[in-house]
Design goal:
The chain has 178 residues and is of the alpha+beta class. Helices cover 26% and strands 33% of the residues.
Length: 178
């Protein structure tokens, strides 16, 4: 399996819009903070296009065997310049999950983050119902640093907010993983 990251371009926007707004109740939204997505407005393509900006510093498209399958993103958290970045990933089509693409793409993106930003620590935030994301974080070397019990209500059940962190000094660069 050939996994790569590519810079997002306007050519990716119809594909992104399809997975984020056109598909009714896509599976990926059941894992990526579903309690937030249920209240988000579905946009037309024109609305989506007018809201989009290109920012290669904060996001990229995951490509598997030449096909777009998801996105990775990062955001610097204030105070800016302090070295704290938050990381996220979404594999949109469920057929491309549980095959290692998410792990490989995350490894590439985290490596890129440590090489091209001032990141001292990278965090990922999720909820206790997303065991796949917690397992991915653990496999990447993240450790749990915060848990807010029962902070999220989803379909009548309460879930914890889970935050995990990875220090630059604990990261094994991509070259060391081969």
């Amino acid at each position: 399996m050939d996994v790569a990251l590519k810079t997002e371009s306007e050519d990716d926007w119809p594909w992104l819009w399809h997975w984020r707004h056109e598909v009714s109740n896509p599976d990926w939204k059941q894992w990526d903070s579903p309690f937030l997505h249920e209240h988000m407005e579905r946009l037309t393509f024109d609305q989506f296009r007018h809201q989009q900006t290109l920012n290669p510093r904060t996001r990229a498209i995951i490509v598997v065997n030449g096909q777009r399958v998801g996105t990775v993103h990062r955001n610097e958290l204030p105070p800016y310049g302090g070295g704290w970045w938050d990381f996220g990933i979404a594999i949109y089509d469920p057929e491309h999950r549980k095959q290692g693409a998410g792990y490989t793409a995350s490894t590439l993106w985290i490596d890129h983050t440590f090489k091209h930003t001032d990141a001292h620590v990278i965090t990922l935030s999720t909820w206790s119902g997303n065991e796949q994301m917690i397992n991915l974080g653990t496999k990447l070397g993240f450790t749990e640093c915060s848990r807010i019990p029962q902070a999220r209500l989803w379909r009548g059940s309460r879930y914890d907010v889970v935050q995990m962190s990875l220090l630059r000094s604990d990261w094994f660069p991509l070259s060391a993983r081969r």
